[in-house]
Write a sequence for this structure.
């Protein structure tokens, strides 16, 4: 969800009256403008080189995080105690450890670009700018932190059950 949401940077511009109100969302793939009437127009970024460095660098780890998360889910199903994919309990235990490690890696790969982008927005925030130029944290950051927390915590549970 973090990968697809255009709400990484958000600005709300309210002009002289409510009629000219619009919200601008900037994500890692596109920019969207939402008018006060509810009409939304999105435009995919034309050039990768024109993007800020943190947005350029966020794309690969987020996509790898999604793929690692899917791999972790497959390993969790294969190594589950209620499945018959494998008869050997020791092999299932190893797959459970693999699921935990993969999920922790996926969580960290999600956390890095989300935190970097949030840091950049907070660092560049200037209260002296007009409201149309102020960029704030968007919904994608909060969902990204929540998702990374769930993946890291969920990946830690099978590792806590290790018997060395």
């Amino acid at each position: 969800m973090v990968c697809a949401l255009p709400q990484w940077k958000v600005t709300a511009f309210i002009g002289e009256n409510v009629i000219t109100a619009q919200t601008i969302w900037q994500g890692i793939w596109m920019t969207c403008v939402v008018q006060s009437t509810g009409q939304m127009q999105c435009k995919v970024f034309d050039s990768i080189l024109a993007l800020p460095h943190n947005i350029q660098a966020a794309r690969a780890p987020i996509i790898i995080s999604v793929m690692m998360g899917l791999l972790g889910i497959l390993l969790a199903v294969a190594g589950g105690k209620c499945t018959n994919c494998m008869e050997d309990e020791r092999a299932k235990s190893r797959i459970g450890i693999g699921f935990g490690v993969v999920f922790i890696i996926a969580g960290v790969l999600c956390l890095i670009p989300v935190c970097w982008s949030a840091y950049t927005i907070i660092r560049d925030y200037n209260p002296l700018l007009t409201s149309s130029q102020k960029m704030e944290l968007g919904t994608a950051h909060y969902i990204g932190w929540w998702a990374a927390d769930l993946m890291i915590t969920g990946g830690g549970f099978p590792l806590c059950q290790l018997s060395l």
In short: The helical segments are 53-78, 89-124, 139-160.
